[in-house]
Specification:
78 residues, alpha+beta, 4-stranded antiparallel sheet, 4 strands, 31% helix
Length: 78
Amino acid sequence: MTDKDLRHLEEAIRRTGEVAAELGRAAGKPIFYTDPAHPEGIIKEYPDGSRDLIDRKLGEERLLAQLGPRLPNHAAAE
């Protein structure tokens, strides 16, 4: 695989994540993603834009922190 092929594949994966996030929001469901700025947990973003940092272990969800809304230039579903 060439560097150009890899870049195209990475872009396709990123777009797929963005589409999935938009579909989840449109359905009124929270989306989940990781963010290098918060390695200690998973971001749970609600359709209204509010976000929680959570920990999920053994099927249980634990709130670690409430976060502000995502910045407009920050990609969702990272």
